[in-house]
Design goal:
By secondary structure, this protein is an alpha+beta fold. The chain has one domain (2-70): TusA-like domain (Translation Initiation Factor IF3, 2-Layer Sandwich). The chain has helices at residues 13-23, 39-50; strands at residues 2-5, 30-36, 54-60, 64-70. Strand 3 and strand 4 (64-70) form a beta hairpin. Helix 1 packs across helix 2 (39-50). The longest helix is centred in the middle third of the chain and has 12 residues, at 39-50. The chain is globular. The protein starts with a strand and ends with a strand.
């Protein structure tokens, strides 16, 4: 599973970076994103889901969130 650390990256740059990283993996691959609290956790999961990716889990860790998703088909 790929892990993408987007902590410290502000909106909407974190969504753009997430999209670019997802372009590098095949459909069906599970990817883990590390996101900050606040706007990133409110916006990035919703935007990725709207792009056709399947959200598998969202958990709060030590001051950040772990979003796990499966890349949708293109």
């Amino acid at each position: 599973m790929a892990r993408i650390d987007l902590r410290g990256v502000c909106c909407p740059t974190n969504f753009v970076k997430a999209k670019l990283e997802l372009e590098l993996v095949e459909p069906g691959v599970v990817v883990e994103f590390l996101l900050d609290e606040g706007e990133p956790i409110k916006n990035v999961p919703k935007s990725l889901k709207a792009e056709g990716h399947r959200l598998l889990s969202l958990e709060k860790a030590n001051g950040y969130y772990i979003l796990i998703l499966e890349k949708g088909s293109e």
